[in-house]
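Hi everyone, sorry if this is the wrong subforum. Our group has a chain we'd like a structural model of before ordering constructs, and none of us has done structure prediction before. Sequence below.
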Amino acid sequence: MIQKTEILIKLLRKEYPSVKLALNFSNPLELLIATILSAQCTDERINRVTKNLFKKYRNVRDYAKADLKIFGEDIKATGFYKNKAKNIIAACQKIIEKFKGKVPRKMEEITILPGVGRKTANIVLTFAFKRIEGIAVDTHVRRLSKRLGLSKNDDPNKIEQDLIKIIPKKDWGNFSCLLIEHGRNVCLAKKPLCRECILKNICPSFNYFIK
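Answer:
Right subforum, don't worry. Here is the predicted structure as tokens:
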């Protein structure tokens, strides 16, 4: 399996040599906010929303003291905005109370923040702090991991545990970005473009989708 994943990563890197995190940010707090907002929303829309949001809310205290209703309106376009607004404000209050106003750099600390699961934590730790502690599993990674035979699980945390056993640690940080890019362009949710796929020779789902 490890040999297969190394081939898979090599093919994806060749296809997407410039792949990177799609969310725009300039500091760890902005990445944390953007990632919480990204649940059930496209990165493109998140970047449109945060372009103005990051100008209005400059630091953790701005978010912590934000009016829930007003902040909700500011992020309404991201969907599920009431819950996201509540979590972001509460997370920033906890950052001030427990972490001296700084986004925590450890998995066991950042995951106690409201609205922060392992996916969000992995993204922030990897791309804001260069700390590789796991693999972020979003909807694309979840879908492709199953189609490619990398995991049989549905739960994102279990999928992550399956992946870290077979993906070389040096590739953990970028692996999600590669799968997400491939999921957006080729391995689509409803009608994957299997005949055009660079992974078709090693994908166990190929024959299923071209019937």
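For your construct planning: DSSP finds twelve helices and no strands in the chain. The radius of gyration is 18 Å.
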